[in-house]
Protein: Multiple sugar transport system substrate-binding protein
Organism: Longispora fulva
Amino acid sequence: MKPRTASARAWRIARPAAVGALALVLAGLIGGCGAADAPTKDDPNAELLVWTDATRQAGFEQFKKSHPDVKMKVETYDSAALLTKIQLFNRTGKGWPDVIFDATPNEVAALSSKLFDYAQPLNDLIPQDVQANFGSANAGCHVDGKLYCLKNDLAQSVLWYDKTLMDQFGYKVPSTWTEYAKLGQQVAKDHPGYIIGTAGFKFVYYDYFWSSGCPLQTVTAPQTVKIDTKDVKCTRVTDLLDPLISAGVVSRGGPFDPEVTKLGKDKKILMMPGASWYGDFVFKPEASYALPNGRLAAAAYPKWDGEDKAWSGATGGGIYLVSKHSANKKGAAAIAQWMATDTDLQASAPTYPAYGPAADAWGAKHGTDPFYATNPLPALKAQAALINPAEANTSYGVEDAITGTVVAKVRGGGKLADGLPDLQSQLQQLAQSVGYAVN
C-alpha cells in the first residue's frame, strides 16, 4: 500500500465533527433502536460487502484477488456518515456492510452498543493464537469482556527528538517528565526560539492527558465512567505544561499550524512528544517540517515521578469490525483477520501494525530508513505495549470538548489549567446525554 498522504490522513486532523457529533447522533436516534436479528445459519457462499477508506482499499482488493472463491464487493464510504448509515440500515432491516474499516477507533463503543446493534463479537471467530499475537493492542476493542474489533495499526506516543541539536547543545534525552520540564526551562534560557512540544491542538489529550491516565474516558463498569479533571493525573499535566508554555518552549499552536511548521523547517524543534506516525508524516514530508536525513530519533516516553511504566497515549489507529447481521460471519471475520495480520501486507503499511509479527516485519523494512539518526523501532515497539489502559473507548468523544476548553484557553493566551473546570462540565454532560452514569 502507498504511504498515507496528508489528505488521506485528514481524519486525524479534521475528524472531530464525526466523533464529537456522536453524542448528538446517539441522543437523537434512541427511538430508532436497531433491528434484532433471529439467529441464522452461516452461509459460506453469501456475498460479502466491505466498506473501507481509500488507503485500505488496495489491501482488500489484494485479498479478493488472492481468494477468488470468496464473493465480495469492496466500496469506499463517507466515514463521517457511518453511524447515521448504520441506524438507517437498522430501520430498514437491510444494507449493512459485512466488514468495516473504521479510522475512528472510539466508534467501537457505539457500534457494539444496543443502540446501534452492529458489531459482532469476534472471540469465537478469531483463533486464540491470533488474538494472543496482538498482545495488548486490541485492548480498546474489548467492551464488557467481548472482542468487537481487530486493531489495524497503532499510534502510540513516543518522544521524538532532533539528535543533531541535542548533541550540539549537549543535552541528554529526558527519561522523566521532571527531567523534560527542567530541560525545557534550560532551553528557554540558553536557546530561546526552540520548542520541545505543542499544546494548542486536540492531540494534547492523547500525548499528555491520556498518557498520564487523566480520567476523562475511564470506564469503571458497564455504562459507568469516571470523569474527574481535579484528579492529580490531570492536574500534573497542566502543572507540567503551563510553565513551559509561559516560557515559550511549548508552543501555544498545534503541530500542523504554520508557525510550528516554520519552526520545523528552520530546525528549531528540539523535541516533540507525538504519535508513532509523526516521523514519516510530520517530520519527513517536504510539505511539513522537511527535516533532513539523519537528524530525527525516537526515545521511550518519559515517566511520571513515582511510576515505573512510561505510559503512552494513542493518536489514531484504525479498526476492523464485522457485522452481527452478516449471513457469512466466518467469511467476514476471515477478511478482517487477513487485513489486520497478513505479514506481507502490513510490512508495507504506512503506519505501525497492531499485530505483533506484522509489526516485526514492518520494523525490518523501516528500521534502516536513512531519514532517522538511529533506528526508531525499539522505542516504537516498547511504547506499543504501553498504551495507557486507564482510558477506554466510549460512546462520547473528547476531542471537541478538549478543543473548546483547555486548547481554547492556551491558544487565547491563557493556561491549560483554566480550562479544566469547563472540560469537566462539558464531558460530564456529554457522557450523561448518551446514557452513562458519571462518578
Observations:
- The CA atoms of residues 32 and 278 lie 41 Å apart.
- Confidence is low (pLDDT under 50) at residues 1-38.
- The longest strand covers residues 157-162.
